[in-house]
Amino acid sequence: MSIENIPQIYIKDKSKTPDLFVYDFKMTNDVVKSKVNLSMNMFSFLQVGKKQVHFAGTAVAVNRDQSLLLKKGNWLWTELLDVDASYYCKLFFFSEQKLKEFLEKHSLNKVTLKQDTPFFIIQNDAYITSYLNSLSTISEAPPIFMENLLMVKFEEIMLYLLQKYGNNFENYLQSLIVNQSSPFKKIIESKIHSNLKLEEIAFLCNMSLSTFKRHFISEYNTSPGKWLQDKRLNKAKETLEQGKLKPSDIYFDFGYNNLSNFSAAFKNKFGFSPSETA
């Protein structure tokens, strides 16, 4: 699977990347766990469809009642169509320099804070709907005015969200300008009970698959495939022992493409099939 460099793939003039950039993203096909290199922080104002993002240490899912502010980095995106077979979101990208300028002008808290969460969930409301309509209107403005107009609209949404979410939002903005690298083990252990493939976990660690495997063996003294399978099967057994779910309900969540492969791996490890779990 190729890596999408965003917002670069949306910018017509490849010679430079603007500090502020708005793009209307629409599609008519589901996209599952697309590899994205997000080089700018970004608002994703979801209007139609559903979105899920896997980060290095966590994941988030939103519907059209919510939007996201996403931190730049390597993420896996899943975008699902609505019932009318469509997906639409308005993306607003902003550079770290514009964020710093905003915080210097409006922030009451001058201390940058460390925060691990790479996203902030925004509840869509009437004001945001009106705001998005205004963004659509200025998209028709002559290019000579666009930069100044976008600066005004960027400051507007930031001030509104500061008023709406207070310190929580301000602290999140401060965290965006702190360069942090997630510890390798923290990323790995947050993905134990997911259905991500090794290649996808390696991508979230900013590593090639071969580098990831070497680093994993040096940390855990075993291969990542064997280690993850063991952890996931133990968790699957615990889940089935609770008696609320059947093997057919959970096999995909633990990294198996079909029930037959899950059942074979489960029986090989425990000596009995998952359907026999009490």
Describe what this molecule looks like in 3D.
This protein has 278 residues and is α+β, with helices and mostly antiparallel strands. The protein has ten helices and ten strands. The protein has a five-stranded mixed beta sheet, covered by helices on one side. Helix 6 packs across helix 7.
Given the helix and strand composition, which structural class is it? alpha+beta
Sum up the overall morphology in one term. Answer: elongated
Strand content: 15-25%
Give the biggest sheet. 5 strands, mixed
- Strand order across the biggest sheet? 1-3-8-5-6
Mean pLDDT: 88
**Radius of gyration, rounded?**
22 Å
Task: State the main characteristics.
278 residues; alpha+beta; 5-stranded mixed β-sheet; 5-stranded antiparallel β-sheet; 10 helices; 10 strands; elongated
